[in-house]
């Protein structure tokens, strides 16, 4: 009877530990498993961000003005140009809005 009780107790403890670990784990929210081959026009891009370091593949998630998320390959030249252009455009908008606020 005692080994049975010890086994059940260990099983219950293991279940609680597994549940607690899964609730508090900090894993990636979104990863790219494949990349789009379609070039996205700059006019349609609202923002972008890179995937989490724990993802198997490095990727860039482009968010369009229609709120679609598209995974693209950051090593592609057109993606690098797109990121630079969007970043520069956002910096200009931020500097314009800060100069308007100071007036």
UniProtKB/TrEMBL annotation:
Family note: Belongs to the intercrine beta (chemokine CC) family.
GO biological process, one term: immune response
UniProt signal peptide: 1-22
Source organism (scientific name): Carassius auratus
Subcellular location: Secreted
Gene3D superfamilies documented for this protein: 2.40.50.40
PANTHER family membership: C-C MOTIF CHEMOKINE 3, SMALL INDUCIBLE CYTOKINE A
Superkingdom assignment: Eukaryota
Keywords: Cytokine, Secreted, Signal
GO cellular component, one term: extracellular space
A Pfam family of this chain: IL8
Chief localization: secreted
Single GO molecular function: chemokine activity
Name assigned to this protein: C-C motif chemokine 3-like
SMART domains (UniProt xref): SCY (SM00199)
Chemokine interleukin-8-like domain sequence ranges: 28-86
InterPro entries (alphabetical): Chemokine_b/g/d, Chemokine_IL8-like_dom, Interleukin_8-like_sf
Positions of transmembrane segments: none
């Amino acid at each position: 009877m005692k080994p049975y009780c010890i086994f059940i107790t260990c099983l219950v403890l293991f279940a609680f530990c597994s549940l607690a670990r899964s609730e508090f784990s900090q894993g990636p929210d979104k990863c790219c498993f494949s990349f789009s081959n379609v070039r996205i026009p700059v006019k349609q891009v609202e923002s972008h961000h890179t995937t989490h370091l724990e993802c198997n593949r490095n990727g860039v998630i482009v968010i369009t003005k229609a709120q679609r998320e598209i995974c693209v390959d950051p090593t592609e030249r057109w993606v690098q140009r797109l990121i630079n252009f969007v970043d520069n455009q956002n910096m200009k908008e931020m500097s314009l809005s800060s100069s308007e606020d100071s007036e």
